[in-house]
Amino acid sequence: MKQLSLIRDATQGRDYSALVDDIIEKYFFDEFSKFSLASLSSQGRMEEENNDQSYDSDESDDYNYMEPEYDVEGDRFCSDRLHPESFLYKAFERNEVEIFLNSTVDTLCNLINSHPSLRFCVGLSCPVLICALEEPKARRVQCERCHAEFCFMCSEAYHAPTSCATLKHWLVKCRDDSGTANYMTAHTKDCPSCHVCIEKNEGCNHMKCSICHYEFCWVCLGVWKSHDAEYYFCSKYQENPDSAKESVRTRARESLERYMFYYERWENHERSLRLEHDQRARIQTRINEKVLKKEGTWIDWQYLLLAADTLRNCRYTLKYTYPHAFYGEKLERKELFEYQQALLEAEVEDLSWKIEHAEITDRADLQNKMDICEKHRLTLLQEFLTN
Question: Model pTM?
Answer without folding.
Answer: 0.61
